[in-house]
Amino acid sequence: MLLRIAALALTLILPTTVAAQLALIPKPRELATLGTTTLANGLTIDAPANADDRFAATDLADALRERGINARIGGAAGARITLLRASNPNAQKLLTSNNLALTGAAHDEGYVILTDGSHLTIVAATSAGVFNGAQTVKQLIEGNGPTAKLNRVRIRDWPAMRYRGLHDDLSRGPVPTLEFQKKQIRTLAAYKINVYSPYFEQTLTYASNPLAAPPGGAMSADDIRALVAFARQYHIDVIPEQEAFGHLHHLLKYEIYSPLAETPHGHVLAPGQPGSMDLIKQMFAEIDSLFPSRFIHLGADETFELGRGQTMDSVKAKGLGAVYLGFLQQIEQALRPTGKRFLFWGDIAQSSPDLVKTLPKDMIAVAWEYDPAQKFDRLITPFTDAGLETWVAPGVNNWSRVWPNFANALANIQGFIRDGQRLGATGALNTTWDDDGEALFNQTWYAVLFGAAASWQPGESSIDDFQRSFGRTFHGDTTGLIDAAQRQLIAAHALLQRQGVGDANDFLFWLDPYTDEGMLTADRIRPVLREVRLLAESALVNVAAARRVQPKLRETDALDAMELGARRVDFIGMKFQFADEISGMYARAAASDTTRDGRTNAGRELSDITGINGRTQDLRDGYTLTRELYAKAWARENKPYWEGNVLARFDKATQLWIDRMDRMTRARREWSRTRRLPPPDSVGIRVPKTPSAVSSLR
User: Fold this and answer.
1) Max Cα separation, the chain?
2) pLDDT at residue 19 above 80?
3) pLDDT digit string (tens) for 163-220?
4) Domains of the chain
5) How far apart are CA 51 and CA 43, in angstroms?
6) pLDDT, tens only, 625-676
7) Whole-angstrom Cα distance, residue 284 to residue 305?
8) Is 354 in contact with 319 (CB distance < 8 Å)?
9) For 146, which of 27, 70, 172, 386 is 20 to 30 Å away at the CA?
10) H/E element holding 154?
11) What residues does 112 pair with on adjacent strands?
12) Are 541 and 567 in contact (CB under 8 A)?
């Protein structure tokens, strides 16, 4: 039955055949396919003389060996891959004979791939270009082991945007292990992302200000040095963001720093307080010593408290924009001796376009917006018109959700980066945020990779093309089932969104359906619960089927995280459905007469509530199962810090249903003695009052 339901859902979402097209992320600018070569005898990668290029060759060989392909550095057996700089005489001959060049925009990071029989050659002018070409070759080889095949191609490719980044929230709960960050770096580089920007409020350990960093929940100086050195090999620049204006509550809540806060123990540093600038200088001196990047992100977004406390008189006299931008200028001037270039979030400044023109011209504005829109010009032009270099920052829409809302994310990324390119933005900084501390990075790769594609490819990137390529490229799935599962979870989000409850968010997952808010929410989402559950469960079936057919799928931790997300989406529907069923069962049992049949039916109703496999047990089990899966997913990414805050919510929710089980059991025993049941609210349940809800209980 389950498989028939899944098949029915697939008819709406999965194409009848999976296109056998070459799936590459990002898509190259110029591509011609020339057939395939089997790799039964493996392949040989010529050892380049340059150390950077040798690393690219070794990284390529390592990635292929992980797939069971016999990849060797040096030798003569099997197919052959050569990495050449454009200055090499052999490379020059190849470029000339094929009427190709790596000049202009293609020089710094561009590459050419040419194939002659079973010999593939990567040509690039720089080490970054050679590395990028090697990443494309990873995707040109399909399959695993001796049955793998090499797609013979002719490619010329280069990026649309100079800076293609990921901004990773390390301060709202989960703090990744260094080992997981290295995995992030390897994976980001494989899709040609060249900036990784960790976000710090209080999770960077400062020798000068040690109080804020939570023990076991911060990056140390040794961690930073190791990460920066590791990323350098992968041509990724680690650009730190340390909030220097707002979002500093976890520092300002301490009494030592309270005098620096705009409002007592608040979120925003007070401009005009001498200690504020002293603190900034101390923190950024340490950042300068740890991060060799020529860029530093100052944050400075969402300074909502400004003007409500210590700067109230100044804001009244000068205006909010003038006080805000004045302090931003002071920060830049104080830190200018480091020789860095400073990024800042553009949300506050964009409302004062005339004052923006007074900012130093070597600052970089980062315009951000996380919802889809027809055009994003209003967020970008205040800075480009002022002559400031500008980056755009879309988002993966993972925050406060049991699974990211990828429909919102992909449309936001597509439009914002398209308009950024059109208006001259030089960088894209795709963002993850962990607002309520529950987000898991392994659930975000779908939107992270689309951000990589959209910032490399010129113009508007096709969402449809990406969705057809993701499963094959990221997981090695040739069935299309993982792509179908992604679309099913997107559809589940959309159903809830149309009911006016946001989407499949954490609030719905934790909400008690018998509270006032729970009852109102149930009235809204009741019409779509069955469809939401079918979509989530079909996604689970599809992932399981893809794994069964292809036991060597890649990125299995991300598939586990996807399973967790689908189960949590399904549980949202189950919880509200079963709450209705419990209410109906209890009402019917209470209304039963004292005849033999009436007593029998009432006993069955009560048993279905709280007997073996009763609904209350199901809801207890739903929280305990997702807790177990969540804890495993957390451990694959993060340090133990903060996990207890999330697991405590699972435990509390589990206990709620255990308490209801016990109260129901007592009511059931009372009924067996007296043939009377206590009122529903005395056992922790409520009966809906709306006609549609009552009819659904019958």
Assistant:
1) 99
2) no
3) 999 999 999 999 999 999 999 999 999 999 999 999 999 999 999 999 999 999 999 9
4) 30-157 (3.30.379.10), 163-461 (3.20.20.80), 485-696 (1.20.120)
5) 21
6) 999 999 999 999 999 999 999 999 999 999 999 999 999 999 999 999 999 9
7) 23
8) no
9) 27
10) strand 149-157
11) 123, 156
12) no
Helix or strand holding residue 175 (H, E): none
* Cα separation values, 312 from 56, 307, 320, 327, 630, Å: 56, 4, 9, 14, 45
Backbone angles phi, psi at 567, to 5 degrees: -65, -35
- Dihedral sign (CA 45, 51, 53, 58): positive
Tokens in use for 690?
């709306």
Query: How deeply is 35 buried, as exposed, middle or buried, from its count of CB atoms within 10 A (0-12, 13-18, 19+)?
Result: exposed
Query: Rounded to 5 degrees, what are φ and ψ at 115?
Result: -125, 130
Cis peptide before 240 (omega within 30 of 0): no
**Nearest CA among 495, 577, 494 for reference residue 528:** 495
For the whole prediction, is pTM greater than 0.70? Answer: yes
Burial 382-401 (b: 16+ CB within 10 A, else e): bbbebebbbbbbbbbbbbbb
Q: For 271-284, what is the HEC assignment?
A: CCCHHHHHHHHHHH
Burial of 26 (0-12, 13-18, 19+ CB in 10 A): buried
Alpha-carbon distance of 560 to 66, in angstroms, equals 19
Q: 660: which residues sit within 8 A by CB, 6+ positions away? A: 610, 616, 683, 684, 685
DSSP secondary structure of 347-358: TTGGG-HHHHTT
Given a contact cutoff of 8 angstroms between Cβ atoms, the answer to whether 569 and 528 are in contact is no
Does the pLDDT at position 14 exceed 50? no
Q: How far is CA 180 from the centre of its chain?
A: 14
CA Rg, the chain, in Å? Answer: 28
**Per DSSP, what are the bridge partners of residue 401?**
505
Q: Which of 540, 541, 546 is nearest to 562 (CA)?
A: 540
pLDDT at 12: 45
Residue 596's Cβ-count burial label (10 Å; 0-12, 13-18, 19+) is exposed
β pairing state of 71-73 and 30-38: unpaired
Residue 39 CA to residue 43 CA, distance in Å, equals 7
Q: What share of the chain is helix, strand, coil (3-state, %, to 5)?
A: 50, 15, 35
Top pLDDT among 146 and 693 is at 146
* pLDDT per position as a tens digit, 458-469: 999 999 999 999
Three-class HEC string of 548-599: HHCCCCCCHHHHHHHHHHHHHHHHHHHHHHHHHHHHHHHHHHHHCCCCHHHH
Dist CA 187 CA 531 (whole Å): 34
% pLDDT > 70, the chain: 96
Task: For residue range 363-415, list pLDDT tens digits in order.
Answer: 999 999 999 999 999 999 999 999 999 999 999 999 999 999 999 999 999 99
Taking only the tens place, the pLDDT of each residue in 132-172 is 999 999 999 999 999 999 999 999 999 999 999 999 999 99
Distance of alpha carbon 647 from alpha carbon 464, whole angstroms: 37
Nearest one of 514, 494, 519, 513 to 504, comparing CA atoms: 494
